Amino acid sequence: MDQTDYIKEKIETLGISVSDEQCEKLLRFYEMLVEKNKVMNLTAITEFEDVVTKHFMDSASIVMLGKLGEEKIVKLLSSGCRVLDLGTGAGFPGIPLKILFPNLKITLMDSLNKRLVFLDEVIADLGLKNIKTVHARAEEFALKPDYREQYDLVVSRAVANLSLLSELCLGFVKPGGHFVPYKAGGSEEEIKAAEKAVSVMGGKLLAVYKFKLPGTELERTMPVIRKITSTPGKYPRNGKKLGVF
Description:
By secondary structure, the chain is of the alpha/beta class. The protein has a domain at 64-232: 3-Layer(aba) Sandwich (Rossmann fold), CATH 3.40.50. The protein contains eleven helices and eight strands. Strand 2, helix 7 (113-126) and strand 3 (131-135) form a beta-alpha-beta unit.
């Protein structure tokens, strides 16, 4: 089995129909990622099969919510909605989501510009449209009119406490929109502890879904948070109080 066939087989275990062109773009992204990783620390995961599973499948695993009763999230992905990937790092989950759902209008935001320079190279090389990078700190840009409450869906694989992530992310979500953080298995206590922060930010924790990536033992926990009311103007905060409730 060649590499594009391997990508196709693994992605389709999530229930996503994927074309040869999409597989080729994911493979090209992998090649660019490991090449750039030689000179810049983007990821500790570089073996092909591991990248496909732990980065590509994991990024796309939000579609598993459809099988668990959250069809509206999958409909959002298919609708061409506005998505913010906050703390995108090496482009996860934003780049795989854009490749697999090309109608999405995606913003990749990160505080480290050199990562975004790499992602701009990826975007150009793959010919991706309606996707941009933004060099910014979330606590500053969430207060800017062009970004505040402008997104239908905010996602984040950033390794941060959910109370902190909720304060940083929910200001970007429009009322009626959703925030879906990608959390590891065993995050239940962290999620429960974040409910106050979610509420203060104008959100409501609708459900918490736990599953394994198909064909693996990798556990994933995904809270689905709906934006109920506008985030109070003083949030997110700067400094030591950020994420403390």
